[in-house]
Specification:
about 25% strand, alpha+beta, Ribosomal Protein S5, domain 2, 13 strands, 5-stranded mixed beta sheet, about 300 residues, Alpha-Beta Plaits, globular
């Protein structure tokens, strides 16, 4: 049994346009790294936070990694506490799963130092508890793809489900340099919705999932449009209509808001097509006065993993 471990959790795209709080995708890119060490007592102690974000609470109850680890200790009861170091690679309020990544990396690392590792279903529930520290909601569309990789269905109860992804599918994620807090983005969703919009969104989700399972990019193109959530959040992202239009003009299969935003993603047929979409979206953001970074990844992105451990 190791006494310490370091794990990495990748960025993610929550919702994937058509599956609000249900569908998610892992992205191959800079993520969060968390090191945990067995410690005397039974407490979780966050000893350092480094990286692109440092102004985060050290109190375990208020930190996504800390809350997830407290829940892990309560579940596993290993007879020791955990000292935690967090290195943030994902900006908070970026729409790339920054809060979830710390929780998932912490849990994967801690699982490697437990006398008996916990199963995926339990880790999934613990990760949702950590996510709630930041967003106020136990949604799993970011933590599920981080735990499994690729595209996943994140159910309210039970284990997350992997969805097959055509090998040719790539994505571009463009992150403008401003913060959009998840709680604010969720506040924009208040109000009533037309039943017809739910029906259309269900149709789009069905088309995307069927296209993924059958390797049919035409079905994915038909379905990858968010008519339920995107219209209510678009105004929170300066230049969004032009950014989305720029991606579609390059031939992208679809484009929408990544998670709660402000990042915007596009799916494309092949890496070169994803790179063109990413470049066009970044240029559209610049035209709207927003500097932006571009991340290009297979849609079948990696899962969180232990990178190092020792006695």
């Amino acid at each position: 049994m190791s006494s310490w471990a370091t794990a990495h959790a990748p960025p993610s795209i929550g919702n994937v346009a058509v599956g609000f709080d249900v569908l998610g995708q892992a992205v191959d890119g800079p993520g969060d790294r968390v090191t945990v060490r067995r410690a005397e007592g039974g407490a979780v102690r966050i000893t350092a936070i480094r990286g692109v974000v440092t102004a985060l609470p050290l109190e375990a109850d208020q930190n996504t990694a800390g809350r997830a680890l407290k829940a892990l200790l309560a579940t596993a009861q290993p007879g020791f506490g955990l000292d935690v170091e967090i290195h943030k690679g994902i900006p908070l309020g970026s729409g790339m799963g920054g809060s979830a990544a710390s929780a998932v990396a912490a849990l994967v690392a801690a699982n490697a130092v437990l006398p008996k590792a916990l199963p995926l279903t339990v880790l999934y529930e613990l990760a949702k508890e950590g996510e709630a520290a930041a967003s106020g909601s136990r949604h799993g569309d970011n933590v599920a793809p981080m735990l499994l990789g690729g595209v996943t269905i994140a159910p309210e109860t039970g284990a997350p489900v992997s969805v097959p992804v055509p090998a040719s599918l790539w994505c571009a994620v463009v992150h403008p340099h401003f913060v959009l807090e998840t709680r604010r983005a969720r506040e924009a969703l208040r109000g009533s919705y037309a039943l017809h919009d739910f029906v259309r969104q269900s149709e789009h989700l069905a088309l995307v999932l069927t296209g993924l399972f059958t390797n049919d990019l035409d079905l994915i193109r038909r379905g990858l449009t968010d008519i339920l959530i995107e219209p209510r959040r678009a105004a929170l992202i300066p230049g969004f209509p032009g950014v989305k239009a720029a991606a579609l003009a390059t031939g992208a299969l679809g484009a929408s808001i990544s998670g709660a935003g402000p990042s915007v993603f596009a799916w494309a047929d092949g890496r070169a097509a994803a790179e063109r979409a990413g470049a066009a979206m970044a240029e559209a953001f610049r035209a709207a006065g927003q500097a932006a970074d571009v991340l290009v990844s297979p849609v079948a992105g990696p899962a969180a993993k232990v990178e190092a451990c020792g006695a």
